[in-house]
């Protein structure tokens, strides 16, 4: 049916037949535009250069004279980004009854922590965009465990330390930062806000932290770079392309623009199965499923998907490619997505500048460990090999939501932590200012934690300030005992009788 | 009252007086048909040959000339398998209110994982059939723990491995399979779908996995065997009959038909107490209880039941019978239902071909361990005795619902895993195609897990890819503290205020 | 106000001024009857001889000629034991809506396990009686933990054992029993059913288990003894009276009547604070509190209570009294309420016949250990001192609700288990027949467990059949993370969308 | 806008421009009174001398002739403390339906435990006052964990000990007390009740326990001291002022008044972020936020706050100040807020009289350990250094709600426990009598626990009476498995069907 799917974008025709199947936004968005000029619906989400980044040159079919396209073959732009329709929300009234009222966005000053932004983002975002950002792999156990892991670490504060002045500034890969935190790369920021990555670049500057530019951005690399202030330092994330020359070009451009470090993503040789997102797409875009036939062989089906995906992320990347990676740039090269000591040691021995312990925000492999949990194992192993803070930087990301989380990561040896979703949620709810305030809240929290822990500056934070006895405890309680539970009559405090 | 219960089936008269008491479908279904030709209501669920398999010859009372039976003594067939009546369902509307709407079966393509099929099956199945399949022993703690156990295993993925091609094919007892998974034996598939086991046989072929034919099937053995394609290999499960000659005949038939392996069930010398199912029957079939008398001695009561059950499953089967088992066939003989190292070692030393670590889907003994939890103990013990993958195959079943579960079992040494309820639920909801798609989803998941774990093929999956520290933790949290809990005012994120 | 509280019972006048304060049924019931003949309201709950058992002789003020009492000074009997008013109950209808309907007691045959009786008892019992039976000490953590502890023990079944015949009969202190279980002493059975302890005596006979007669019964000792069949063996519980001669008389009567063993309660030198019960009384009997004055000294207040209680249970009882206890009877003497190894060893060394590991059904000290959890520690210690099954019997009670619980206790070394509330709940809901059926259900369960565990008789059940790794884990999960939890959008299976 | 904020109080003008930003009650209450005589709204909450205690002399701008102030520049007093408006409350009716009814305060005699007072306080307190008292730091995990930690300790009672007489009296820092408990310092008791700290002083006398006078009280120090009976001994808490002379004056006054011990707070160099309280203020006082600008640098913002706070609590206080502290008084000096062994040893070696293991009621640093959990580590460490009960007293506070909690703290080595919120909640709900009854309930509970544990007096309570195996287990269960959970059909007891 959709055997042949050509689409015109910015005056070029592309063969998206295979790509449609692996479009993270769902095939329908593409197949509906087959044979048409889709520029108007493509532009609000994607950067102009994404086709050149992702698609094989062979699939670019040549230039089209757009003046010759009939109006009925030109997609109309989506309605202007209108304010989200007021939603209804269940509210627990004082008298315990459920009431309904319109959702009224609180003022920015009411945001007291990073969770607040998430709760507002859930209300104001388009459901599809919310689904794309908030979903995780499979049962989302790792997604949720990422933050919970920090609660498995207990604080061990010291008293009677002079904490009049708290200094949380630090250097991240040599770059000064207002606290040990950076904005990690996340895809398609326009789904959150029209200003997308440009707002993040500016907010990073105001907040005084580095931003790791994503490969799969909504704005082009040039646009993102141009949004910097002259003195602003950024990092960049990299998906290695199966056609290495493309990655080489991209890296050269980064280096030329003064980007300081390159984080190569190694935990995504295939995109994770994010079912909440998959369901959203199914429900909202409808489906062209022709009955209930499941006859095709499973292997062919999935191999097809793999082949398409591997057109822009190389699943064959392996340790033998590391020398090539190091050879193409003078930037510091780090691995993003390490999950055990052995691989961290390999990275160190391979002469890389560091690694990020990460499970990709719980979006890839479910039931794996949070970065913070992997950290002690990695620090012990790389130190045993001679690694120091100077020659091998270890970062973590995933689940950082409190200043105390930053503290715990630093205590266990991380040079800094990456935050992703909190940036997107604060961007979605309040734009650039939202991001800045989100960082301010983390700073307020971290300042308090440092003061109350008796650690006036970053170097003073040590392993002795935390207890990790329970960090690796993945406890799944036995199922509840229904028969007992349903007859038992609970105690009630006096005011409830 | 029902002291004497004769029933005519396919022109033969049977004395079902004792059998009625242990009929898994409830006594009433049989006693209501006393003195009648019940063929019409028997046929939709049971295979024609079940009486010969289960009943002692002495209870077959001879041939009846069915033309002489008066119409009022002939049971009417149940109404044709009409589509399940549209059910109402509580739906959380966007505004938080509860609404009611008719259940509309989603298209097959909306099934993203094995849980989806279960949720649809619950809606479309007859309550009695759902109760029979979904229930477990006693408090159903083991039933639910079976899947939870997999969550007590944490993934330890490796990076920078070439995972361009993922090969999950393997051999199960020498039989090629598209992944390390087989369909385990489950009783009475017609309760799920009119095509019953025949659909499972066909789906197994399409999905490329072996099917273990059940003894207590809805179709006859001949019918199941006939549903195979010429090159399709199947296994068979066996309940050993107290009259060994019957089992010998049955096994001979299997061997002659080319069945490759015989799995002898050893965890069901008595049927488990499945209370959800018992209640269903009580509620829906009514009861002929005459008041509240409980005078009869308990021992007599239960011994009666035992005697009746033992008419077709021998509770006296023991290790001394193993040489006989091995003597009657050239098929590989395995034990299904092993739950500790000692018994696995005994099986190995007895020269058997392997064993299945299983608790019978949580339907027998409650609060025992899931197969996946027993696996490390068994692998260590049998390997210490010299067992290898070649001479002793270890399988597990119970709770497998995700491709990651298959991965974890393989990592810990299983040759493959058995799935039971997912087959029944996908059969019940979408027939043969449902089963195939269910396997496809598991394959998609397993492919992703293998790619993200850095294990491109089955042999590359090892113990080092998983963490089992918490696998044996059966944690029952202390009861909640009601007084504290009921006065505490929880935090609310900003959007909820 | 109630400084002087005399009450006439069966023609004798008693000074209940002090006793009223410690009346387990609440002071108001007594003070309301001050100066009156209260026989009519006393008789339905209490035995005729309780005053002689509990009250100091000095407080019996002499005989009253009841013919001289004016009618207005004679309490009226409570209304005849009318069937409990039909109650309303919330019911989850098929469509998810809450409905209300009258509670209809299910037939006895619908009772499938001991929990069922409890659920029916909650509906049919008077709220005060339910409150008295079902309540526990303080936060009721131990009350609920008692049963949960059994779930912290995992089964380790063996296969291929000949389990055609299961024999669960055993001897308890030399007395034959149909299973390793006895009915433990519980107070005031008339609160459950008019036939009270007499029904329990008869049910014990029918069920083939010993009954431990309670000191604080609703029927007199003579009445309970008379309810026995000629060959029926019973045990007896004893609260030691501060006036030792009273206990000596009571014990002599027991011995003369052929009672076989004496269980001396040692865990109740003071009655526990059962707040659910206290609230019930407060709410339902009203209160004569004069404002909010709390001026009296706490010490005086509680010492008063203690003094009154100690009028019939001696809080001074200690190890030096054991020789006296042994000297006054030839019955076997055991301690009921031991909670650690040291005390069990003391009991053994003191020449006692055994002990019951018990926390008094969770009604006394909260956050202490269930009997089943104390068992391994005790067995190891007494065996190290030379104790054997023959010369020192160890029992447990508390939380036994399943046949599997009995199995686990036996596996860990208990000679038998005591059940209390299940007897009261089955008595309350269905009378004597209810108790018998409750035992039958436990027998059915135990038979199944023994058959599935590969243990055809009681001696074959060993420590190797269970896993106790988690038995002593008292896990209190950290409080839930409200901010995270309240914004997270859970996954929904397909049929729920 | 509020750049210049002068306020007149008791005839003096103060420059509160900077202070407003750190006013624990919120800036708006102060800025609304800018340029006015605010005495009338200040007086009901604060002591007259607080300005002298907290504010730098330079900010006292001189005396104002109040007769010259125009009426429109004089704040009106808040309405007289009217009884709280009857609130509505959700009530679970017998038939399961939700009903609404007016909250009716139960009589004092219905208060059976400390939780009851909290539940009543929640209903009768002004929401802001409730928010201020009940809130904790960040996610309130430590706030809630404080009480839960006691449930991680299991009782190990002994039997057959003569417990006729229970003596729970003890000495706290040499001062006789009716039980091992004192009222710890809490701020601003007038928020609970008009009589504030005066009622607490009187209740402490009646209850026979010492009270630790707070620095941040609602009544002046003189007023609190005057409320004592002639023989009543009190302690005092101290926030060390950055201007040491102020603290010296304050301490001298305490010593002169016969105060026996000085507890220097060391866990609050900065006030914790109590978000529930912050939200309350935001919601109820409105906000003057001008749009969503978050432009100002975070560092400046928070440093500003710190500077203001540090005007009355010195964040620079450190171990080198200890000799000074000891030099200015002959009172015993202790540290309040120690959280690990190292600091307790430092305190002991510094010649201090003891310390309080405390996390400030969970109001400061979140995810740190409860005092009771730190206790074993501290006792072992200080004893190893030679500390004895006589020369170094260790206390704990936080989460004490039951007599059993007191028992457990004493068993693990605490000389006594401090209670804070229970005092405020019982004060708020029933005034002075409420506090006394709250202590009576704890005494009743402790008496019962001591009697049932076989420990007739305080010295007989030892480590062997408790089990602490799980005390340090901070278990965070893995997130619930939604897909499994939402399709599973739970068992229902018979009465629920």
UniProtKB/TrEMBL annotation, chains A, B, C, D:
<feature type="region of interest" description="Disordered">
    <location>
        <begin position="74"/>
        <end position="103"/>
    </location>
</feature>
<keyword id="KW-0285">Flavoprotein</keyword>
<dbReference type="InterPro" id="IPR000262">
    <property type="entry name" value="FMN-dep_DH"/>
</dbReference>
<dbReference type="InterPro" id="IPR036400">
    <property type="entry name" value="Cyt_B5-like_heme/steroid_sf"/>
</dbReference>
<dbReference type="InterPro" id="IPR037396">
    <property type="entry name" value="FMN_HAD"/>
</dbReference>
<comment type="subunit">
    <text>Homotetramer.</text>
</comment>
<dbReference type="InterPro" id="IPR001199">
    <property type="entry name" value="Cyt_B5-like_heme/steroid-bd"/>
</dbReference>
<feature type="domain" description="Cytochrome b5 heme-binding">
    <location>
        <begin position="1"/>
        <end position="65"/>
    </location>
</feature>
<feature type="domain" description="FMN hydroxy acid dehydrogenase">
    <location>
        <begin position="106"/>
        <end position="471"/>
    </location>
</feature>
<protein>
    <recommendedName>
        <fullName>L-lactate dehydrogenase (cytochrome)</fullName>
        <ecNumber>1.1.2.3</ecNumber>
    </recommendedName>
</protein>
<keyword id="KW-0496">Mitochondrion</keyword>
<feature type="region of interest" description="Disordered">
    <location>
        <begin position="274"/>
        <end position="303"/>
    </location>
</feature>
<dbReference type="GO" id="GO:0004460">
    <property type="term" value="F:L-lactate dehydrogenase (cytochrome) activity"/>
</dbReference>
<dbReference type="Pfam" id="PF00173">
    <property type="entry name" value="Cyt-b5"/>
</dbReference>
<keyword id="KW-0560">Oxidoreductase</keyword>
<dbReference type="GO" id="GO:0046872">
    <property type="term" value="F:metal ion binding"/>
</dbReference>
<comment type="similarity">
    <text>In the N-terminal section; belongs to the cytochrome b5 family.</text>
</comment>
<dbReference type="Pfam" id="PF01070">
    <property type="entry name" value="FMN_dh"/>
</dbReference>
<dbReference type="InterPro" id="IPR013785">
    <property type="entry name" value="Aldolase_TIM"/>
</dbReference>
<keyword id="KW-0479">Metal-binding</keyword>
<keyword id="KW-0408">Iron</keyword>
<comment type="similarity">
    <text>In the C-terminal section; belongs to the FMN-dependent alpha-hydroxy acid dehydrogenase family.</text>
</comment>
<keyword id="KW-0288">FMN</keyword>
<dbReference type="InterPro" id="IPR008259">
    <property type="entry name" value="FMN_hydac_DH_AS"/>
</dbReference>
<dbReference type="GO" id="GO:0005758">
    <property type="term" value="C:mitochondrial intermembrane space"/>
</dbReference>
<keyword id="KW-0349">Heme</keyword>
């Amino acid at each position: 049916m959709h055997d042949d799917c050509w689409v015109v974008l910015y005056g070029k025709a592309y063969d998206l037949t295979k790509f449609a199947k692996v479009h993270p936004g769902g095939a329908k968005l593409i197949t509906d535009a087959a044979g048409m000029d889709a520029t108007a619906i493509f532009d609000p989400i994607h950067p102009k250069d994404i086709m050149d980044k992702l698609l094989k040159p062979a699939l670019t079919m040549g230039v089209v004279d757009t003046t010759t396209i009939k109006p009925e073959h030109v997609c109309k732009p989506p309605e202007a980004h209108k304010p989200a329709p007021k939603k209804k929300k269940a509210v627990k009234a004082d008298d315990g009854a459920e009431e309904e009222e319109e959702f009224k966005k609180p003022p920015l000053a009411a945001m007291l922590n990073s969770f607040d932004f998430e709760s507002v983002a859930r209300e104001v975002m388009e459901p599809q965009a919310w689904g794309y950002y908030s979903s995780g792999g499979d049962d989302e156990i790792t997604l949720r465990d990422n933050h919970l892991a920090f609660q498995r670490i207990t604080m061990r504060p010291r008293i009677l330390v002079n904490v009049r002045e708290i200094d949380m500034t630090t250097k991240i890969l040599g770059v000064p930062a207002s606290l040990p935190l950076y904005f990690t790369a996340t895809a398609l920021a326009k789904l959150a806000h029209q200003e997308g990555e440009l707002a993040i670049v500016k907010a990073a500057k105001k907040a005084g932290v580095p931003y790791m530019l994503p490969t799969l951005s909504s704005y082009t690399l040039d646009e993102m770079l141009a949004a910097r202030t002259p003195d602003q330092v950024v990092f960049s994330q990299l998906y290695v392309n199966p056609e290495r020359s493309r990655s080489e070009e991209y890296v050269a451009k980064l280096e030329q623009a003064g980007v300081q470090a390159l984080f190569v993503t190694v935990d995504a040789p295939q995109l994770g199965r994010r079912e909440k997102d998959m369901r959203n797409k199914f429900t909202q875009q409808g489906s062209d499923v022709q009955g209930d036939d499941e006859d095709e062989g499973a292997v062919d089906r999935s191999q097809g998907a793999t082949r398409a995906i591997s057109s822009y992320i190389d699943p064959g990347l392996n340790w033998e490619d590391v020398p090539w990676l190091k050879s193409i740039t003078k930037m510091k090269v780090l691995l993003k997505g390490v999950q055990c000591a052995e691989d961290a040691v390999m990275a160190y021995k391979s002469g890389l500048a560091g690694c990020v312990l990460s499970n990709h925000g719980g979006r890839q492999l479910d039931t794996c460990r949070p970065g913070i949990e992997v950290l002690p194992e990695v620090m012990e192993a790389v130190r045993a090999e001679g690694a120091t803070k100077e020659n091998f930087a270890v970062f973590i990301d995933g689940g950082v939501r409190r200043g105390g989380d930053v503290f715990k990561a630093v205590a266990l040896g991380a040079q800094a932590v990456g935050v992703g979703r909190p940036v997107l949620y604060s961007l979605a709810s309040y734009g650039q200012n939202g991001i800045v305030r989100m960082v301010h809240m983390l700073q307020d929290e971290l300042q308090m934690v440092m003061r109350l822990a008796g650690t006036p500056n970053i170097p003073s934070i040590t392993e002795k300030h935390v207890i990790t006895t329970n960090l690796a405890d993945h406890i799944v309680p036995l199922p509840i005992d229904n028969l007992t539970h349903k007859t038992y009559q609970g105690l009630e405090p006096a005011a409830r009788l």
